[in-house]
Each structure stands twice: as structure tokens, then as C-alpha cells.
């Protein structure tokens, strides 16, 4: 690929105007334009002629000849410029595009190529443009990993739309939370938005289980299970953040914190701690 640099114009005495030189491909392209216009006329006003078997064949031949003219005029693929690619494999992207150097640029079916690109697991959307005379421009928007979804006893990588991105080789995404529940990916964006209001606490959440398709249980990095309510989970999360900030509740010897009741806090402690609390005078 070439890097084209526009140099600043030097301050010189104004010269006599020169005749503008057209690119070499412009004049042959004028002939090609006539042929393409003829094709458009066949498709528009002369539709009734297509009842003859010879007309489609003639039109296809005419189109092929027109594309050959554009190719001879220099309108061929020399570069594929891709923007937005991060995780999408470059080799796979080019293979799916199915474009070769020297192909007629105007002969590329950009809509079909776009659909093929959007079938790639990492590609959420794609835009393809022909940029005369030699470049096929591709801009893709990649899917953003949201979480690992436990499905059929296996973890898969999903995005915020619940679309499965990867089924294998997910070790690099082990830092993402694990979602459990059939509808968990669909409901997770709202939950994660709530959790982000307390980022330090959010970073300690290892898994989220959707219970009864209505509310969430959170598993923290130290094994503590936190139960959020169906109504106002954001308020309960803010309450937990305050408890952690002021009392370090997650550092206590507890196994579960139930936030489903707005007027009280229910805490379940470890069996050894419960036994010690029942018998404070005995050394266990």
C-alpha cells in the first residue's frame, strides 16, 4: 500500500493556469458508463423483453464486457483498506471478502460481501465502499465481550446482545463475570450497569445467577453469596457498597448476605462462627 502525502504549496509567483490533467482511467470509463447506462435501460423500460431466453444472456454478456472495460481502464482492486478490526482474524476477513488483486472494482457485490462479513462471529456490522480507482474500503464494528455464559455445563463468550462470540479458546476472557440462567445474557446489561455504580465492588463479582428470571444472586471473589431483590436492585447495591465502605462487611466471617428486605439485613455466617456465637464462653 502507498502512503500519499500532500506537501504544502510554496509561495511563488502566480503562474499561468494550466490545463487540468485527467487520470488515465477517466476517458475509458466514459465508454463504460454508456454501457452501464444501456444495462440500466434494459432493466427499467424493457422488462417485457426478458420473456425471450436470449435477452438475459445478452445482458449478462454486456455486463461482463462493461466490467472488462472498467478493468482495462484501471479500475481494479489493488488495496483493501480495513478499519475497526481488533480481534477479527485478518486472514479470515480477507477470505470471506473473496476479493483478489486485479478484480474489477465495480464488479464486486458489496451487499453480498457485507452479509458474508457479518456472518463472522466477531463482526457486529460492516460497511463496504468502492473507492476509485483501486481501493475497497471496509469498516467493521466488532462485538464487545460482556461475560461468560454457563450453558449446558460449558462456558461461552457473549456480548451485550446475548450473541455467542466464542465457544472455545476463551481463556483470555477469564476475568469477565460468569452468567448463569437461560435469560441471563438478555438481562445482564441492566445488572452490569447497576454494578458499575460501585466499580471497586463490581470488580469483586465473579458470577451472577438469574433466579426465577426475576432477580440476581451475586458470587464474590471470597465465596460470599449476595442476594439482590427483584424490586430496586440498584438501591440494594448502593446499600451494600455503603456497608462495605463503613463496616467491611465482605471481610466478615459470613457466607451469605440477603438484601431482599429493605428494612433489615439478613446475614448467614459460617457454621464454625455460628457455633462460637451460640457458645461464647467456650473455646472452640
Lateral strand order in the biggest sheet = 6-5-4-7-8-9-10-11-12
How many helical elements?
8
Return residue spans where pLDDT drops below 50 for at least 5 consecutive residues. Answer: 1-8, 38-52
CATH C-level label of the largest domain: Alpha Beta
Q: What Rg is obtained from the alpha carbons, in whole angstroms? A: 32 Å
CATH superfamily of the largest domain: Cell division protein FtsQ/DivIB
Q: Which fold does the CATH topology of the largest domain refer to?
A: Rossmann fold
Count the domains. Answer: 3
Helix content: 25-40%
CATH architecture of the largest domain: 3-Layer(aba) Sandwich
Largest sheet: 9 strands, mixed
The rough form would be described as rod-shaped
Counted beta strands: 12
Average pLDDT metric? 83
Distance between the termini: 75 Å
SSE order, one letter for each helix or strand = HHEHHEEEEEEHHEEEHEEH
Describe this structure as you would to a colleague:
The chain is α/β, with parallel strands linked by helices. The protein has 8 helices and 12 strands. The chain has helices spanning 26-44, 54-72, 90-97, 110-117, 184-195, 199-202, 233-247, 271-278; strands at 79-83, 123-131, 135-142, 145-151, 154-159, 164-166, 178-180, 205-211, 215-220, 225-227, 254-258, 266-269. A 9-stranded mixed sheet has the order 6-5-4-7-8-9-10-11-12. It has a 3-stranded mixed sheet with strand order 1-3-2. Helix 1 (26-44) packs antiparallel against helix 2 (54-72). The longest helix has 19 residues, at 26-44. The chain is rod-shaped, with a radius of gyration of 32 Å.
Amino acid at each position: 500500500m502507498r502512503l500519499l502525502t500532500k506537501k504544502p504549496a510554496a509561495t511563488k509567483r502566480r503562474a499561468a493556469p494550466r490545463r487540468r490533467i485527467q487520470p488515465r482511467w477517466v476517458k475509458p470509463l466514459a465508454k463504460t458508463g454508456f454501457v452501464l447506462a444501456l444495462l440500466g435501460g434494459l432493466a427499467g423500460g424493457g422488462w417485457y423483453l426478458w420473456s425471450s431466453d436470449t435477452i438475459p444472456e445478452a445482458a449478462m454478456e454486456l455486463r461482463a464486457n462493461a466490467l472488462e472495460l472498467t478493468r482495462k481502464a484501471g479500475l481494479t482492486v489493488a488495496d483493501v483498506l480495513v478499519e475497526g478490526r481488533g480481534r477479527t482474524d485478518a486472514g479470515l476477513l480477507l477470505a470471506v471478502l473473496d476479493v483478489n488483486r486485479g478484480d474489477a472494482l465495480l464488479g464486486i457485490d458489496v451487499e453480498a460481501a457485507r452479509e458474508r462479513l457479518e456472518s463472522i462471529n466477531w463482526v457486529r456490522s460492516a460497511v463496504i465502499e468502492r473507492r476509485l480507482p483501486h481501493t475497497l474500503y471496509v469498516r467493521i464494528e466488532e462485538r464487545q465481550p460482556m461475560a461468560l455464559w454457563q450453558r449446558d455445563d460449558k462456558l461461552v463468550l457473549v456480548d451485550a446482545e446475548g450473541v455467542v462470540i466464542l465457544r472455545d479458546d476463551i481463556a483470555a476472557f477469564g476475568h469477565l463475570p460468569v452468567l448463569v440462567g437461560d435469560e441471563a445474557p438478555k438481562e445482564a446489561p441492566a445488572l452490569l450497569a447497576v454494578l458499575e455504580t460501585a466499580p471497586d465492588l463490581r470488580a469483586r463479582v465473579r458470577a451472577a445467577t438469574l433466579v426465577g428470571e426475576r432477580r440476581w444472586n451475586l458470587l464474590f471473589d471470597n465465596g460470599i453469596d449476595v442476594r439482590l431483590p427483584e424490586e430496586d436492585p440498584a438501591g440494594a447495591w448502593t446499600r451494600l457498597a455503603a456497608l462495605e465502605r463503613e463496616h467491611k462487611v465482605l471481610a466478615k466471617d459470613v457466607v451469605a448476605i440477603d438484601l431482599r428486605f429493605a428494612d433489615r439485613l439478613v446475614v448467614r455466617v459460617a457454621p464454625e462462627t455460628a457455633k462460637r456465637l451460640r457458645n461464647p464462653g467456650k473455646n472452640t
